[in-house]
Amino acid sequence: MATLHVCPQLDSTSGYKDRQSILSYEDQQAKLASSTTLYVGNMSFFTTEEQIYELFSRTGSIKRIIMGLDRMNKTPCGFCFVEYYTNQDARAAMRYISGTKLDDRVIRADLDPGFIAGRQYGRGRAGGQVRDEYREDFDAGRGGWGHLKAQQQREAEEAERERQQGALYRNDHDMQGMRDVPMGEQTAEENMRFRREIDEEEEA
Question: From the Swiss-Prot or TrEMBL record, what is one GO molecular function term (predicted)?
């Protein structure tokens, strides 16, 4: 007997809750029911507003696009908000655009309760998104290594440079010490070698 698999609606919300919102989860869900705003994530840092507009305007007229920015550098950090004029157009974008590729990345779009000033900035400690703080893989589209891993690599490289500089200093110091040893303090072997060199010069 065949088994019936029920697939979720393509325009159903993910149930994501903004932890910094003053609204309760229930109130957020109520606002999502009529929202005209999409949160778009997993974008490349290099994707432009023009590219986003070109793609998302295929499902309806766009009111505005708010690019997500690194809080420290004020540069794109991989997300944005797309505001439509109607809930129907926003849901159409979820249905037909979310899960497709933009700049060779599979983007995700979800209904958002509504943009509030300040939400355009990353919430990670380094200024970007939290997900990029702990990412262990190298992602060229999102700035390379995750922030913590990149910091560890920088610290390791700095430690290696200091080790090499210390080794060079010690070698130079040792050579300088050898040059500065007074004649009377040289070893017997060094004195014999010195005398042999003098004798060879006199014979020549």
Answer: RNA cap binding
The class (CATH top level) of 25-127 is alpha beta
Give the chain's mean pLDDT.
80
Backbone conformation region of residue 114, classed left if phi is above 0, alpha if psi is from -120 to 50, else beta: left
Which residue in the block uniquely carries the two structure tokens 């590219």?
Answer: 51
Sheet holding 76-84, edge to edge: 62-69, 76-84, 37-41, 108-112
Alpha helix positions (H), the chain: 25-32, 49-56, 87-96, 147-179, 188-203
Q: CB atoms < 10 A from the CB of 104, how many?
A: 7
The pLDDT tens digits of the residues spanning 104-153 come to 999 999 999 999 999 999 888 888 887 787 777 877 878 777 555 556 65
| CB-neighbour burial class of residue 139 (10 A; exposed 0-12, middle 13-18, buried 19+) | middle
Sequence ranges of the domains in the chain: 25-127, 134-169
